[in-house]
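thread: overnight batch results

M.L. [08:02]
morning all. the overnight job finished for the chain we discussed friday. pasting input first so we're all looking at the same thing
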Amino acid sequence: MLNWTEKIKNSDPRIWQLAIMAGLLMTGVWFRDFSLKPAQIALTFTAGLLTQAFFLRIFHLQQRGFLSGIISCFGLCLLLRSSNLWVHPTVAALAISSKFLIRPFGTHLFNPANLGVILGLTLFPQTWVTSGQWGADLSTAAWFIAAGFFVANNARRLDISGYFLLCYAALFLGIRVFWYGYSLQVFLHQFENGALLLFTFFMITDPLTIPRHRTGRMIHALLVAILAYIWQFVLFRNQGILWGLFFATFLVPLWNYLFSAPSYQWKSVTEADASA
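M.L. [08:03]
and the structure it wrote out:
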């Protein structure tokens, strides 16, 4: 009989990600005043999962992918806010639809949660992202890092989290601290932010929408960090990391072409794939 460590290692990583994101959402709603109505949560999941079922049916596909759909809905609930009830379900439907309708080279291009947030901010009024909802304290950061480390490591994509944090930290230190003379306290405050850590361990690590090869993931993380920094601190626009990931996504097919590696399989993360 497998011990618990082996069971966790061999299980579908999405199950653990789903459980942790559900815990984060409940904690945020109860203790962090997320300003998220129960009706918005219910409508998000209803629209997202019905959209998934609809496309599976019309394309005559196997009834699968619902775990990923649920995770996308959790991501939208954790990040996106609106004063209207109809925005969340509309964005969820559009985000899930993208998995079936935008498929260059046979796989979906965009991270659905990332695309959903971008569409919400771009297309709908009175919609925003609550970057500061988690606060910026060391205890919150520690919980995010521990949970995120577990999920990303179980999915064999912890490397891109490390690449992104390292690149983003180097840019912030080199430019904001050493060049412009900001204090190290500003740097530490930036990297204790729960939204940044949520992005680092639960969004940019999506195995199906990031480069398959380790070299490609390194380039992708560097590009996301550079674009995020430019968007946030050069153009003085909000949500730099989300927009950085969105723009960098268009080059993922190129990195997959230049650096060949096996396609990721959720339920059978092989050693060959892990070393790619």
